[in-house]
Amino acid sequence: MTYQRNRLLYFIYIVIVIGLGLLSRTRITPEFIYPYLGDFFYAVMFYFIIAFLLNRSPSKTILIISVLICYLIELQQILDYDWLVAIRKTTIGSLTLGHGFLWSDIVSYTFGGIVAYGMEHYVLRKV
């Protein structure tokens, strides 16, 4: 089902999710979910970014595109080109590109994308 998203609201959602993602990388996050929570929020953030950009696209399309972007970013972590490693050593490069491929990140991205889809489909459309 397609509907037109309110870009201002989606911008606010993006900012909130970025804040939650950064907060998830602090000591207040329980140790047992620390390795996964940031990647979960990363996928949620990408869902809302793609929904913001393609505001008339179907939710399933948004889900597929956003999760695939996360997968590609995770897969690039296998590459060890000097210039790419140099980017990853910066703060912004580390936050956006990460370090080291992990299958658990793929699971976190999948779960985050599905949760964002569900939130949009069952909660945000009702607002």
Structure summarized in a few sentences:
With 127 residues, the chain is an all-alpha fold. It has helices at 7-23, 34-53, 59-75, 82-88, 91-97, 103-122.
Structure explained in plain terms:
- The chain is mainly alpha-helical and 127 residues long.
- The protein has helices spanning 7-23, 34-53, 59-75, 82-88, 91-97, 103-122.
- The chain starts with 6 loop residues before the first helix and ends in a 5-residue tail after the last helix.
- Helix 2 (34-53) crosses helix 6.
- The mean pLDDT is 92.
- The protein contains six helices and no strands.
Mean pLDDT: 92
Instruction: Summarize the amount of helix as a percent range.
Output: 55-70%
Distance between the termini: 17 Å
Low-confidence stretches: none
Structural class by secondary-structure content:
mainly alpha
- Roughly how many Å is the radius of gyration? 15 Å
The 3D shape can be described as globular
Q: What's the total count of β strands?
A: 0
Q: Biggest sheet, in brief?
A: none
Succession of helices and strands: HHHHHH
Number of helices: 6
Strand fraction equals under 5%
